[in-house]
Amino acid sequence: MQGRRYRSLDAHLRDVFGEKVQKITLDAGSTCPNRDGTLSFGGCVFCNAEGSGPGCSLGSLAQQWERWRARYAAMPRLRNTRLFLGYVQSFTNTYGPASRLAALLSELSSLPGLAGACIGTRPDCVDEEKMALMAAQPWREFWLDVGVQSMSDATLGRINRGHTAKDTETALRLAARFGVKVCAHLMAGLPGESGEDFLDSVRRLAALPLAGIKLHNLYFPKGTAVERAWREGSLRPLEQEEYASLAARALTLLPSSVVVHRLCADPAPNELAAPDWAAQKRETLDMIDAVLSYNDWWQGKFCDCPENNPFK
Q: pLDDT tens per residue, the chain (312 residues)?
């Protein structure tokens, strides 16, 4: 594991393909039931105008793909990369009829150098027909990225999420039945939640058929409800040290088989209002590594058999 105490996505992809695989973020022009009036017009309290994506929706998926590949080819450390993972991120990409999802998957399949795909969605926007479509994809790597955010119904209500913890359980069990790997997204620092509340969500997810995880620190994007609450003084962000400790503790509660896709948020350029440290991704990751090392913790220490440390 190259010295790491957790199973990173990069290491997982190298195990599968035997070489570097670079993720490319795509925008399929989707919408969300929490935006179009089906559930709400306001969206989640932390969601920006791009649906928590990078705002890269100019052009077709093929045009976006080629722009990103050209950009990576100009970077010395990535210029020899041959394989890419397409991540359709913004909004809810399984929302709507199954025919729309089928068309999206077909469009993805034509992208040159595509090694696999990740499809971002919500737990209340999947069903058997859509799972069957995703399960039928031929790629060696396919992930359903599910925005869970919390396993507390009280928190989900406060953040205007529009789904329940039961919806998450149902979605993960349905995906497992079809053999679709789920990467669950979980946030620390949500309004009204303590660190222990966040860790309780980790424990509940760890008991479900979970293949991957993304841990996020809540930051305040410009133009969102959380930014307004922060400016009014009713909401404070986690300190960087607080988050690093929580993320490290979360890893100890996850099975060592779970692939860690992300350990901190990654704000888009010019998106961040606060906290400033949310833009310091490398520093935050180093801090998490330091907490793990200092405490002799590793992924799964308090979930798997503690005598078996696969990361030493």
A: 456 899 999 999 999 999 999 999 999 999 999 999 999 988 999 987 665 555 455 789 999 999 999 999 999 999 999 999 999 999 999 999 999 999 999 999 999 999 999 999 999 999 999 999 999 999 999 999 999 999 999 999 999 999 999 999 999 999 999 999 999 999 999 999 999 999 999 999 999 999 999 999 999 999 999 999 999 999 999 999 999 999 999 999 999 999 999 999 999 889 999 999 999 999 999 999 999 999 999 999 999 665 566 665
Specify the length of the chain in residues. 312
Tokens matching residue 4: 């790491």
Q: Report how far residue 197's alpha carbon sits from residue 205's, in angstroms, rounded to the nearest whole number.
A: 13
Which residues, 6+ apart, have CB-to-CB distance to 16 below 8 Å?
140, 141
Which conformational region is residue 235 in: left (phi greater than 0), alpha (psi within -120 to 50 degrees), or beta? beta
d(CA 224, CA 162): 17
Q: Which domains are seen in the chain, by residue range?
A: 9-295 (3.20.20.70)
Residue 284 burial (C-beta neighbours within 10 Å; 0-12, 13-18, 19+): buried
pTM value? 0.94
User: What is the C-alpha separation between 251 and 242, in angstroms, rounded?
Assistant: 15
